[in-house]
Amino acid sequence: MSSSERSPLLGGNGSNSNSNSAASATARTGRRSSAGRRSSTALGSVDHQPSLLESFKNLFFYSYFNILLLAVPFSFVSHFAGWGATATFLTSFLAIVPLAGLLGEATEQVSLRLGQTLGGLLNATFGNAVEAIVGIVALQQNQLRIVQTSMLGSILSNLLLVLGCSFVAAGKNYKQAKFRVTAAQTNCSILMLAGATLIIPAAYHASNGDHKLHTQPIGKEATLAMLSGISENVFNGGRDLSGLLVISRATSIILLLMYIAYLYFQLKSHADLFEAEAQEEAETEEAKMNVWSSVIALVGITVVTAFCADYLVESIDEFSSKLGIPKTFIGIILLPIVGNAAEHVSAVWMAMKGKMEITLGIAVGSSIQIAVGVVPILVLAGWAMGRELTLQFGQFETVCLFLSILLVNLVSGDGLSNYLEGLLLVALYVIMAVAFYVSP
Question: Which residue, 200, 203, 136, is CA-closest to 375?
Answer without folding.
Answer: 136
